[in-house]
Write a structure and sequence with these properties.
- By secondary structure, this protein is mainly α.
- The chain has one domain.
- The chain is built from four helices and no strands.
- The mean pLDDT is 91.
């Protein structure tokens, strides 16, 4: 039961971040003023693309979706903290940036774990 809830939540999160990431990454392209702001936009687009690819792979229980979930987890962890510093007021607090990235990273680890468990179970089932 727990795996099924994690599977559904992970799939929904990947789809949501995928759609929002692609849409925002494309619509905000070229709006950054600094290299760090540009890196945030690239990160948003990357987590969008990897989110959609991983959602498809997770839904189909494909072993390669573990690699793409890691590819999704990196920018989904990077973007929140860097965005706080890149777009925040001049007094943006480093602690806020770290907290944003740590929280996102923990959620991302849950998705990666779910992907690993789901694809491992599918691989084991197909071998028996």
């Amino acid at each position: 039961m727990g795996h099924k809830v994690a599977f559904v939540l992970s799939l929904l999160l990947l789809l949501f971040t995928g759609v929002v990431g692609v849409r925002n990454g494309l619509s905000e392209w070229g709006e950054g003023r600094t290299p760090v702001q540009h890196s945030v936009t690239i990160g948003v687009l990357l987590y969008g693309i990897f989110g959609l690819i991983t959602a498809y792979g997770l839904f189909r229980r494909r072993p390669w979706s573990l690699a793409t979930s890691i590819g999704w987890a990196i920018p989904i962890t990077y973007v929140p903290g860097v965005a706080v510093m890149a777009y925040g007021e001049e007094g943006a607090v480093l602690a806020s940036a770290i907290a944003a990235s740590v929280a996102s990273g923990l959620i991302a680890l849950g998705v990666v774990w779910t992907t690993k468990v789901t694809t491992r179970e599918a691989r084991i089932a197909s071998q028996t």
